[in-house]
Automatic annotation (TrEMBL):
GO terms for molecular function: phosphoric diester hydrolase activity. This is PLC-like phosphodiesterase. It comes from the Eukaryota. The keyword Signal applies. Keywords: Signal. Residues 1-17 form the signal peptide.
């Protein structure tokens, strides 16, 4: 046993403290810089709103609760919250002016930090190269969401929030966005792989693969839903975490998708992602909204009745931009005035009537415009 004389301790301790304080200053300054660079996607963390009952809502659930048994409110195309026409105009030098108007791409109006503080626990993010084909950033199809924010910045934002909310578990679904005109190459895949397998990531991401465990195992961490495959990365780079929802198995625009994400345990994700409503032109807001509401509730209804051990993901989000007048994501979610309620208004009473049942994950657009919707999804 090593004995350290008392006088030596008295000398060493203050020195260590001073140097570790300096380290803390450096670390906190570096973190602030990263979070500020992430602000176009993360927003600014203003803490739990005083009126929010859902800021740390998972605290009340036991550790043993299985994630597949939970009702998790999520946001579709989460990173589009600040993609207004003003933002699109400011990015014309990267995208050119010949792109459709911003309201076709904007699906949210609360920042990622606001979403977290309001109780959203599943995020749908799509990455590709930022301008310059060097760093990785966020897009929605041809809409570039920020030219400077990187995936790393945004992950740091989630890590910081989780450190402050250690009872909460957050799921991140990540797609590769192929419609951006930027290259897809080995360098891009190596970069995202390195991010996901770094030492820091191993601390903040649930490290199991091919299975979803309990809330207790997922608290204070991110759980990965990988919606892309590696096409160029050598097979030797094979450290996988989370669950694989392969894009080739994710049937486009389908009201009922089944993806086996683990063959040996027969784990299946049941997904409704009917987003482009196929009605004839001129069908109108009400008809388009009714079709989407039908598809969404049919799927959630199944989540309440079938396969209690499997994952259910229902997208309440949709658009029909080729209609005349077009149904933007906002019109689909929120309707048009009081005479045409949107999917969100219609979902609220439907979910409340089924309070206590398993809904699974419900992905929403403009979730905050209908008060009580988050509580109704969770079943509070
Ligand atoms: C949101 O967009 C506006 C308009 O483009 C911009 O001025 C503002 O800085 C953006 N907000 C953040 C947090 O980046
Ligand atoms: C990025 O990639 C695109 C598509 O391959 C190419 O047109 C563009 O010149 C590249 N930009 C840079 C800065 O390399
Ligand atoms: C399938 O699930 C089992 C049990 O959770 C796990 O040990 C295994 O690694 C998973 N297989 C794959 C291919 O992900
Ligand atoms: C899945 O995880 C297990 C243990 O956590 C590991 O042994 C295995 O290599 C992983 N599978 C892949 C494909 O990375
Ligand atoms: C499960 O098996 C099928 C058929 O062999 C295969 O195509 C699929 O990739 C496998 N899924 C996983 C997650 O390993
Ligand atoms: C929606 O579903 C209900 C009940 O299943 C059915 O009566 C109605 O015709 C459907 N409406 C549309 C627009 O699909
Ligand atoms: C609901 O479950 C039934 C029975 O498994 C299935 O036939 C049907 O296709 C499912 N519908 C949806 C929308 O998932
Ligand atoms: C509602 O629809 C009418 C007719 O299409 C349109 O003139 C009006 O601007 C819409 N109102 C809102 C709030 O979207």
């Amino acid at each position: 046993m090593l004995l350290i004389p008392f006088y030596a301790l008295a000398f060493v301790v203050p020195v260590l403290t001073a140097s570790s304080k300096a380290q803390q200053h450096l670390a906190s300054d570096a973190l602030s810089t990263i979070i500020a660079n992430g602000a176009p996607i993360l927003g600014v963390d203003t803490g739990c709103p005083r009126t929010s009952k859902t800021c740390d809502w998972m605290r009340k659930y036991p550790d043993s609760t299985k994630l597949v048994h939970m009702n998790l409110p999520g946001t579709h195309d989460s990173a589009t919250w600040n993609y207004t026409q003003e933002t699109q105009d400011s990015l014309f030098r990267y995208t050119g002016t010949a792109i459709p108007p911003a309201d076709i791409y904007q699906c949210q109006d609360k920042s990622l930090f606001d979403m977290l503080n309001l109780g959203i626990r599943v995020f749908d993010l799509r990455f590709a190269y930022n301008p310059g084909n060097d760093t990785l950033g966020f897009h929605h199809n041809v809409a570039l969401l920020s030219p400077t924010t990187t995936v790393e910045d945004v992950w740091f934002g989630f890590y910081q929030w989780l450190d402050e909310h250690p009872t909460e578990a957050v799921l991140i679904s990540l797609n590769y966005e192929s419609g951006t005109g930027t290259p897809r190459d080995l360098k891009l895949e190596q970069h995202i792989y390195d991010i996901m397998t770094s030492r820091l990531a191993s601390r903040y991401w649930v490290q199991t693969n091919g299975s979803l465990g309990t809330l207790g195992e997922a608290r204070g961490k991110l759980t990965f839903l990988q919606r892309f495959t590696y096409n160029f990365l050598p097979a030797t780079e094979s450290k996988r975490i989370g669950i694989q929802l392969s894009p080739s198995a994710w049937t486009d625009n389908s009201p009922a998708i089944e993806i086996v994400y683990n063959n040996s345990t027969n784990q299946i994700a049941f997904i409704e992602d009917y987003y482009e409503i196929g009605l004839p032109v001129g069908s109108g807001y009400a008809e388009n909204i009714q079709w989407k509401f039908n598809a969404t509730t049919a799927h959630i209804e199944n989540a309440t009745k079938h396969n209690p051990e499997q994952l259910y993901i229902s997208f309440a989000s949709a658009e029909h931009d080729s209609d005349s007048p077009p149904e933007t994501p906002k019109i689909m979610a929120l309707g048009n005035g009081t005479d045409t309620p949107g999917v969100n208004q219609k979902l609220l009473p439907w979910l409340k009537e089924r309070k206590g049942q398993r809904f699974g994950i419900i992905m929403l657009d403009f979730f905050d415009s209908v008060p009580g919707l988050i509580e109704a999804v969770i079943g509070l």
